Amino acid sequence: MSPSALLQVQDMRLGLADGTALVDGVSWSLAAGQTLAVVGESGSGKSLSAMALMGLLPPAVRWLGGQAQFEGQALRDLSERDYRQIQGRRIGMIFQEPMTSLNPVMRIGDQLVEVLRCHLPLSARAARDRAVELLASVQIPQPEQRISHYPHQMSGGQRQRVMIAMALACDPALLLADEPTTALDVTVQADILQLLREQQQRRALGVLLITHDLGVVSQVADHVVVMYAGQVMEQGPVAQVLSQPAHPYTQGLLRARPSGKLARSERLHEIAGMVAAPTRERLGCPFAARCASALPQCAREQPPVVRPAPERLAACWLVSQGAAP
User: Fold this and answer.
1) 165 HSE (CA, 13 A, CB side)
2) How far apart are CA 92 and CA 137, in angstroms?
């Protein structure tokens, strides 16, 4: 593992007690100040990977293999007590839906104060003053008044800003952002993404962005990992992967993006079929059944990981044989 990486994941395998893998052999690295986007359809293992890094796996899911290092610490080996020292302190997380993540019966200020006093030696007054500063830093107007509001008294965009403030409250080194713009309208999405960029630059944050939106990826990420059925299909610098995708799955995702050029009578492109169900054993490429360009060996043999260009990786028989569509 690279000593210079803020976060490095090596051959991560997550699954059930019977050995069924839900995330299978995932590897990536993230440097301080960079944004790494993990993209794929629902069920690809994106959010589960982030929850593993945060130490918040569901009870039925466990590590089956591999390792993740954050600031030189092997996360898989941490005790629950040690994990609590970095959860919210060194690693912050923005969850998918702020209305279900925020406590509906606690005032916004009290929730921020609780996070601050849990990790930092602050008095109640100092924590409250800091909470007001945090709300102001994420551009919530009249933070002195808003601190006394309940979540239902704020708009969706304001609640997401509160979630960002909570995630950044203790000045973490790494921010995990799980679908941070879900259910927000386009204008609010743009504001939230701009806010995240500003906070990242100000704090030299490493950001792991979980999303299904390639438009968001193109705006904010430096590198992208494309996942399907718990495995990495392709990864590399965003500009290269989005302009010259190597894997048929990445190509399908890009063709499925809505475009202003689409005529009224035209249908959006879709990838036929459903995401492959988790299995106990790897057998061929998980995307083979949905791939229009699949070769005979794609369904039988695990594809090799090849480099279609420097800094890029793709797991595909077509790419390895120079026959990618």
Assistant:
1) 28
2) 16
Strands (E), the chain: 7-15, 21-30, 35-39, 62-70, 73-74, 91-94, 174-178, 206-211, 223-228, 231-237, 305-306, 313-315
Residues 270-321 pLDDT 10s: 888 888 888 888 889 999 999 999 999 999 999 999 998 899 999 999 999 8
Rounded to 5°, angle at Cα 156 from 155 and 160: 115
For the whole model, what pTM was predicted?
Answer: 0.91
pLDDT digits (tens, 9 = 90+) for 44-69: 999 999 999 999 999 999 999 999 99
Enclosing H/E stretch for 10: strand 7-15
CA-to-CA dists, residue 77 to 67, 83, 142, angstroms: 9, 10, 44
| Three-state secondary-structure class, residue 210 | strand
Residue tagged 């500009």 (tokens): 239
In this structure, the chain runs to a length of: 325
For residue 211, what pLDDT is reported? 92
Which strands, in side-by-side order, build the sheet including 7-15? 21-30, 7-15, 62-70, 73-74
> Look-up: residue for tokens 């960002």?
164
CA distances from 175 to 212, 224, 248 (A): 18, 16, 30
Report the pLDDT value the prediction gives residue 261, as an integer from 0 to 100: 62
| CB within 8 Å of 99: residues ≥ 6 apart | 151, 156, 159
Q: Where does residue 204 fall: left (phi above 0), alpha (psi -120 to 50 degrees), or beta otherwise?
A: left
Average the pLDDT over 125-153 and give the result: 95
The amino acid occupying position 22 is L
Task: Compute the distance between CA of residue 195 and CA of residue 214 in angstroms, rounded to an integer.
Answer: 19
Q: Which residues contact 56 (CB under 8 A, 6 or more apart)?
A: 87
Q: Which residues pair with 138 in a beta bridge?
A: none
DSSP 8-state secondary structure symbol assigned to residue 303: P
Which residues partner with 41 through β-bridges? none
The radius of gyration of the chain's CA atoms, rounded to the nearest angstrom, is 21
**223-228/35-39 β-pairing:** parallel
